[in-house]
Amino acid sequence: MLFGLKRQLVRFPIVLYMLFQTGLFMRFQNSCCLPAGKGRQLFLATSLVCTLLAIQVSVSSAAPALPHTPSSVKNQEKDRRPKAIEIEAGYGYRRDSLDWNIAGDIQGNNPDVLSELKWKDLLIHEFHLDTRVNLNKSIILKGSINYGVIVDGDNRDSDYAADNREEEFSRSINDADQGHTLDTLLGVGYRFRLISESCSVIPLVGYSYHRQYLTMRDGYQARTWAGGPPLGSFGGLDSTYDASWQGPWIGLEMILETEKFAKTLPPISFYATWEYHWADYSAEADWNLRDDFKHPNSFEHEADGTGMVASLGVCLRLSDRWSVMLGYETEEWSTEEGVDKLFLSNDTVVKTRLNEVNWHSDVIKIGCSVRF
Fold first, then answer.
1. Which of 36, 146, 225, 337 could tie 169 with a disulfide, CB 3.0–4.6 Å?
2. What structural domains and CATH numbers belong to the chain?
3. 344 falls in which pLDDT band (50, 70, 90)?
4. Max CA-CA distance within the chain?
């Protein structure tokens, strides 16, 4: 009975994969009223997962039964197997920038850029926790969570009366030395070994969430208009902009283990990763000095976006369980045109075009990992 149940479970990923490829998923998408773009993303992510499972199950099912192996040989083989779980903790020195701008109306006119906000040189102390689970020699599960504290940065808020950022009538320069960031990621991959198992190539698919909670404090009015606020420092500024990016991603990871390539080399591993993300972008803001806006939700942003993440690193194995690493990661994200929804204090809602949002991040990481 147990053998029959196992055989049915083995067949399940292959059947699921065939259902997706024959178009049944598209009918499910229509019946659930999924947007076309999100449906394609979900189909891509799920199809890749099913493909990986189908490949693994097919290989496992086709493998012939092995003869009885003595316990001493089994123990030697067990010692040579990669550890099933690897946990890494570490610190990152990170620097970010984020900017967005809106038009005067929903068509993108009057003017084409009405208001523009820029956060630059955001210095972030980041702490990360990464986990990797080797289900077997091929299938890998990975997850990570990064939390950062913003300790320094600048903000610029500009307003324009004419197209092409002409006739700037208001500009404030503000501190952005508070706030935090949060990044989480889940993924599954299939390992292909090359060059006598010293090199691994791992296609990956997963889902990620990224958040930036940005602030504006200690304002300085650098440009104003007749009857506007006076030039110079002004108090009471405590505005916030809470942005998030979330969606599926695909990627590729490459690992080169020098010790397996040549026994005379030190136990060092080099790695490189690349990821492409699809993101639903949303943000909520509280402009605390604007009496004509509602609080704490003064306006919202919504848009579709994409992002690319790349990293390089080196890992030194200290023992069978412990390793240390040094790495660099860079990210580049942007959105398409979206919607800015402004909530006035008289309960009026005004919609304008969100022209774009851009986010860039660089981080240098150090860490220590243990394997079980």
1. 225
2. 83-371 (2.40.128.90)
3. very high
4. 91
